[in-house]
Amino acid sequence: MIVSLHNGSTKQIFIEKEYPDTYFNNNDKIMECVTDLKSPYGSGKYHEICFKNVHIGFGTVALRNKVLLHLESDSDSVEMHFTLKGKTTAVSGNFHKTVHFDNAQHNIIYAHQMCGSMEFEGPEMQFLEINLSPHFFKRFLPDHSEIFNTFRNSIEKQRSCLIHPEHHRISFEMYRILNDIINCSRTGIFKKIFLEAKIIELLLLQLEQFFKNERPKPFLSGKDQDKIYAVRDYLVQNIDQYRSLTDLAHQVGTNEFTLKKGFKEIFGTTVFNFWNTIKMEQAKKMLLHTDLNISEISELTGYKNPRHFSAAFKRQYHVIPSKFKNNRLT
C-alpha cells in the first residue's frame, strides 16, 4: 500500500510511504510512528498506529493559509473519518461529488485507489482517521438495512462512496472514545486489544447514528457553532478554572440561552456535564500515571475542597479516588 501527499504545482512531497502488509495479513504485531509536518504552509504532527486490518492516523496541524495538496493511494480501504477542527475539501475522480468536512463532522468512506486533491482550511486542523480493510469492516456491517446493503454492494463492486450522503455530528460519546484512542498509553498486545475494542465501539456509534438518521434542523448558525466549539476548547484547556454559563457565553460573544441549547445540540450533553466528565477523566489519568496525592489532583481539576472532588469522582466511577489509587499500586 503506497500513499503519497504532495504539492501539485511544485511537486514537493510531504508524505510518501509504502506501508507493509500488516494491514491485511495475520501478523499481530503493532507498529507506530510519529511524523513531524514542516513546510512553508504550517507545522504539526501526524501519529500513525498500524496492526492487522487497521491503520489509525491522527494529528493536529497549524496552517498559515489554505493548503491544496494532492493525494494518491493504491489501496482499498474503509475509512472512519472524524474532523475535530478545521475544514477539508476532497476532490477525486472516484467520487461523483466533492466531499467537504467541517468542524465536528464524521462519516464512513469506502475509497478504491484514490487519486485526487485535498484542500485544508485552518487555522488549526485536528482530525482522526481509522482505515479498515474492507473484509474486516464488513464483519460489523448489519444486514436488513437499505443504507448498509447499498454500501456493502459498493465495496464489492469497488465503487468509492460515502455510507451516507450527509455527514453527521460527532457525539459526546464519540469524543470520549476518540480521546481514549489518541491518549492510549498501553503498549504491545494490550494496546492492540484496547484500540481494537475502542474502534468497534466507535463504529457501533457511527452505524447507529446513520441507521437512525436523526437529522433535526440545526438551531445554530455557522458563526454560533464556532462559538460553541470555542467554549468546548476552553473547557478542555482549563479544567482547573470555574466559569458560570453566563461568563462562558460572554467570553465567546453569545448568550446563555444559545450556549445551553447549542451545546446540547452539538455534543448531546450539558456544558457542565461535559466539563465534569473531562475533569474526572483527567483525574483518573493522574491517579493512574502520576504520584500526585489526592489534594494535588483535586486542585489541578478545579476543586478547592478534596472532599468535594472525592464525591464527584465517586459519582462518576463508583469508587473513591484514594481506593482507586491504592488498587493501582497493589
From TrEMBL:
<keyword id="KW-0805">Transcription regulation</keyword>
<keyword id="KW-0804">Transcription</keyword>
<dbReference type="InterPro" id="IPR053142">
    <property type="entry name" value="PchR_regulatory_protein"/>
</dbReference>
<dbReference type="Pfam" id="PF12833">
    <property type="entry name" value="HTH_18"/>
</dbReference>
<dbReference type="GO" id="GO:0003700">
    <property type="term" value="F:DNA-binding transcription factor activity"/>
</dbReference>
<dbReference type="InterPro" id="IPR009057">
    <property type="entry name" value="Homeodomain-like_sf"/>
</dbReference>
<feature type="domain" description="HTH araC/xylS-type">
    <location>
        <begin position="229"/>
        <end position="327"/>
    </location>
</feature>
<dbReference type="InterPro" id="IPR018060">
    <property type="entry name" value="HTH_AraC"/>
</dbReference>
<dbReference type="GO" id="GO:0043565">
    <property type="term" value="F:sequence-specific DNA binding"/>
</dbReference>
<protein>
    <submittedName>
        <fullName>AraC family transcriptional regulator</fullName>
    </submittedName>
</protein>
